[in-house]
TrEMBL record:
Alphabetized UniProt keyword annotations: Oxidoreductase
Name this polypeptide is given: Aldehyde dehydrogenase family protein
PANTHER family to which the protein is assigned, alphabetical: ALDEHYDE DEHYDROGENASE-RELATED (PTHR11699)
Signal peptide per UniProt: none
Active site annotation, chain numbering: 275
Pfam families given in the database record: Aldedh (PF00171)
Tagged with keyword ATP-binding: no
Domain Aldehyde dehydrogenase stretches: 38-500
GO function terms (MF aspect): aldehyde dehydrogenase [NAD(P)+] activity
Record carries keyword Oxidoreductase: yes
Family as reported in the entry's similarity comment: Belongs to the aldehyde dehydrogenase family.
Length: 505
């Protein structure tokens, strides 16, 4: 693809990209080569803002997964990779980050076309976040290792005991459509930093930036077979999970699919890490700064059209500020400019697909039929007939037993509940099968720490929301997943610990 200047308008860049990618089907990346699927089949990837086809993409299946895994195994076992110095592995990651930065504008527009998120936000969140992730993990190969341990063996022998950290092997990485580039970076970066070879299976809705990332990895100098990308549907993902020569699977997606992956991975007891669904509570105490809370709560549920696993979709507002807060959140929703993410000033794009639009719309109907009150939104914007656009939506007077409160909608729908009993508040917030994240809004330091400690969630934000960083662990409690992304914890997921005993007597 052609690199574009950051000063070129997104629509101009998009036109050139579409002209380029539509000429022939996008190919799989296996063993350092762009190849067609063995079946020759392709599928269309759709622009959510228009409902129109962007291009055809190779439809990989079990046979393609098999050759990608074999390529990854060869590359992983190759002495050139296994003996590569930690510093040289770091430099590969730094070079890849530099190439993403070089092509940032193009990648942002490509992601906007394929995912629908506004190009300005894609650049800020997806692309800049990916650069940051690769640069962060580039620092780990030279710092990630074992330790020497004091032991007390029988018989008084003099023993040297030390541990090493070794790469787990071939990692199968399956990422979702809501943050395609970011999620690919979150998984590829620690995996290759630890010394693994990977096969990436992107979501069928958003394959384009994953393929481009694979091409940039080759340009950066990664050996053939270390990073492979196979596009396709659930058949390809299932084959990757079940493959006997895959040592570890990392998945981000729905809890339902996560459970299926656990079952499928049992064949060779491969290691599994899962970042799954969420139904995150936003807890607002009566002393909170309501203006600040309203702005952040609106972003927390409406950013990326609510298609975020951490979306703050359950609002628990104290009865004394409930109405005022909902009015303020609705006022924030009113400021969003809904439209094609290629257009200047747009801050709210379409949902990913017609299927997702139907799902979100059905939940609004379910909520109102259960007795919730539609306070804002709830339908397609009147001036947008093409694409999968859905208004930011607020449902008030929700109750704990309603489906809109208990089930993950994965769309721009906020379910609001009021509370008065502080003793019952945390119990209500924890009354969920999920435990990915939570938000707490208060100016009382003691209350902030008490609630943060009591809420069962992997991340708790106090007077802020949806902040992430590659240095700090991210993941969930309960049915929101296993393991953690980011930080040293992510490196550990892609490694094995070996204990070595040496008799010095």
């Amino acid at each position: 693809m052609t690199a574009f200047s950051a000063i070129e308008p997104p629509r101009k860049v998009a036109a050139a990209l579409i002209d380029s990618i539509s000429r022939s089907p996008r190919k799989l990346l296996i063993d350092g080569q762009l190849v067609e699927s063995l079946s020759g089949r392709t599928f269309a990837t759709i622009n959510p803002a228009t409902g129109e086809e962007l291009c055809q993409v190779a439809q990989g299946d079990a046979a393609d997964i098999d050759r990608a895994v074999k390529a990854a195994r060869r590359a992983f076992e190759d002495p050139a990779w296994r003996r590569m110095s930690a510093n040289d592995r770091s430099m590969l990651l730094y070079r890849l980050a530099d190439l993403i930065e070089r092509d940032a504008h193009e990648l942002a527009v490509l992601e906007c076309l394929d995912n629908g998120k506004p190009a300005s936000l894609t650049r800020l969140v997806e692309i800049e976040g990916s650069i940051k992730t690769f640069r962060y993990f580039a620092g780990w190969p030279t710092k990630f290792g074992g330790e020497t341990l004091p032991v007390s063996p029988r018989g008084g022998a003099q023993i040297l005991n030390y541990t090493t950290r070794e790469p787990v092997g071939v990692a199968g990485l399956i990422v979702p459509w809501n943050y395609p580039m970011s999620m690919a970076a979150w998984k590829i970066a620690p995996a290759v930093a630890a010394g693994c070879a990977v096969v990436l299976k992107p979501a069928e809705q958003t394959p384009l930036t994953a393929l481009r990332l694979g091409e940039l990895a080759l340009e950066a100098g990664f050996p053939a077979g270390i990073i492979n990308v196979v596009t396709g549907f659930g058949e390809a993902g299932a084959a990757l999970v079940e493959h006997p020569d895959v040592d570890k699977v990392a998945f981000t997606g729905s809890t339902e699919v996560g459970k299926a992956i656990v079952r499928a991975a049992s064949g060779n007891l491969k290691k599994v890490s899962l970042e799954l669904g969420g139904k995150s509570p936003q807890i607002v105490l009566p002393d909170a700064d309501l203006n600040a809370a309203a702005a952040s709560i609106a972003q927390g549920i409406f950013f990326n059209q609510g298609q975020t696993c951490t979306a703050g979709s359950r609002l628990y507002a104290h009865e004394s500020c409930y109405d005022q807060l909902l009015d303020a959140i609705a006022a924030q929703a009113e400021t969003f400019k809904i439209g094609n993410g290629l257009d200047e000033g747009v801050t709210f794009g379409p949902l990913i697909s017609q299927e997702q639009w139907d799902r979100v719309s059905s939940y609004v109907d379910i909520g109102t039929s259960e007795g919730a009150r539609l306070l804002y939104g709830g339908q397609r914007p009147a001036d947008l007939n093409q694409g999968y656009f859905f208004q930011p939506t607020i449902l008030g007077d929700a109750k704990a037993d309603m489906r809109i409160v208990r089930e993950e909608i994965f769309g721009p729908v906020l379910s609001a509940l009021s509370w008065s009993d502080a003793e019952d508040l945390v119990t209500q917030a924890n009354d969920s099968e999920f435990g990915l994240s939570a938000g707490v809004w208060t100016n009382d330091l003691k209350s902030a720490h008490r609630i943060a400690g009591a809420v069962k969630a992997g991340t708790v934000w106090v007077n802020c929301f949806n902040l992430v960083d590659p240095a700090t662990p991210f993941g969930g409690f309960k049915q929101s997943g296993w393991g953690r992304e980011h930080g040293r914890q992510a490196m550990e997921l892609y490694s094995e610990v070996k204990s070595v005993w040496v008799n010095l007597t």
